[in-house]
Design brief:
- This protein is of the alpha/beta class.
- The protein contains 14 helices and 7 strands.
- It has helices spanning 16-25, 47-56, 78-88, 103-112, 123-136, 143-147, 152-161, 175-183, 196-199, 208-221, 229-233, 252-255, 258-270, 275-279; strands spanning 6-10, 29-30, 65-66, 75-76, 93-97, 115-120, 191-195.
- The strands form 2 sheets. A 5-stranded parallel β-sheet has the order 2-5-1-6-7. Strands 3-4 form a two-stranded antiparallel sheet.
- The longest helix has 14 residues, at 123-136.
- The protein is globular and about 50 Å long.
C-alpha cells in the first residue's frame, strides 16, 4: 500500500466508480475531502464556509493553482492546497477528484508526495453518460434545464456549447473545452493513467485481459501485492455505485444524431482533441 493517500482523479462520468471500487477493494477508505471546484465555489446561506473559501481563493492569478474544471481561471492558493492534501489524505485514504491539468497543479501534487490515478474515457461516451446522469438525477442543479429541452438533440447541444448559469442552474463550460482541460493528466509521467475502455472488463463490453493488465498496472504503481489481482478483478465492476449508469462502451453510437456528431467533430478540433484517434475507435 502506498505510504500516503491516493488521489482518484477523473473527468466527470469517465469511470470514477471504477477507480473508487478498485481502491476500496484494495483496502483504501474514502477521505473527507473532494478535490474539485467544491473547494472554491460559494454556497447559499453558509457564511462561515464561504468566508473560508474567500481566504483560500488566490487573488493574484499568476500565483494560483486551477482546480475548477468548469472555470480554470478561478484559482486556489498553492500553499493552502498542498497543506490540505497533506492533512486530509493520510495513509490508507483516497480522495475523489475532478481536476483540470496544469503544470502548477502537477507540481503541487508531486511535492506533497501523493500519487494519482487518472481515468479517461471516449469523450462521446462521456457526453452521453453526462446527459443521462443529469436527466436521472432530480437534485442536480441543471436537471430542470435539461428536462425542459424539447429532445435529446437539444440537450446534447446545450452540454456541448456550455451554459453561463443563473440562480437556478450551475455554470457549465463548453464540454470539449473542459474535456481538453482534463486529458493532460494522461500524459503525466508521475500519474498512473487508465482507460475506462480497458478497465471496464467483459461485463461492460471490454476485455478480461485488458482489465487484468490495468489492475496490475495500478498494483505496481501503488506497490500492492500482485497475488490479489484475481480477487479484486472479480469485484471492480460494481453496478451498485451511486453514479453508475450503464457502465458500457460505445453508447454514443446509438444516441448521437448525425447533426450532433458533426458538431462534436468541429468542437473537438477547436479544442485540439484528436478527432481521428477517437473516431478510429468506432
Amino acid at each position: 500500500m502506498s505510504p500516503k493517500g491516493i488521489i482518484a482523479n477523473s473527468f466527470p462520468k469517465s469511470g470514477t466508480h471504477l477507480l473508487t471500487e478498485l481502491l476500496s477493494q484494495m483496502g483504501y477508505n474514502q477521505a473527507n475531502t473532494h478535490l474539485s471546484r467544491s473547494l472554491l465555489v460559494y454556497g447559499p446561506k453558509n457564511f462561515i464556509r464561504n468566508l473560508k473559501i474567500y481566504f483560500r481563493r488566490e487573488k493574484i492569478q499568476d500565483k494560483g493553482v486551477p482546480i475548477d474544471i468548469e472555470n480554470p481561471k478561478m484559482k486556489i492558493k498553492r500553499i493552502w492546497l498542498k497543506t490540505h492534501i497533506e492533512n486530509e489524505l493520510m495513509e490508507g485514504l483516497y480522495s475523489q477528484a475532478h481536476l483540470p491539468y496544469s503544470k502548477k497543479l502537477e507540481a503541487v501534487i508531486e511535492q506533497s508526495g501523493h500519487k494519482m490515478l487518472f481515468i479517461h474515457r471516449h469523450p462521446l461516451d462521456v457526453l452521453t453518460s453526462l446527459k443521462n446522469y443529469i436527466i436521472n438525477k432530480k437534485n442536480h442543479p441543471n436537471h430542470k434545464m435539461l428536462v425542459n429541452c424539447t429532445n435529446d438533440e437539444e440537450r446534447f447541444l446545450l452540454l456541448i456549447n456550455g451554459y453561463s448559469g443563473n440562480q437556478n442552474a450551475m455554470i457549465m463550460a463548453p464540454f470539449f473545452k473542459k474535456y481538453q482541460y482534463s486529458i493532460g493528466w494522461a500524459q503525466s509521467n508521475s500519474v498512473c493513467s487508465l482507460s475506462f475502455e480497458e478497465i471496464i472488463g467483459i461485463n461492460g463490453g471490454g476485455s478480461e485481459e485488458q482489465q487484468r493488465n490495468s489492475i496490475i498496472k495500478v498494483f505496481k504503481y501503488l506497490n500492492y501485492d500482485l497475488k490479489e489481482v484475481d480477487r479484486i478483478q472479480s469485484k471492480v465492476y460494481n453496478t451498485k455505485s451511486a453514479t453508475f449508469h450503464k457502465g458500457t462502451t460505445g453508447q454514443w453510437k446509438t444516441e448521437l444524431t448525425p447533426k450532433v456528431l458533426n458538431i462534436c467533430k468541429l468542437k473537438m478540433m477547436e479544442a485540439n482533441i484528436d478527432v481521428d484517434e477517437y473516431f478510429a475507435l468506432t
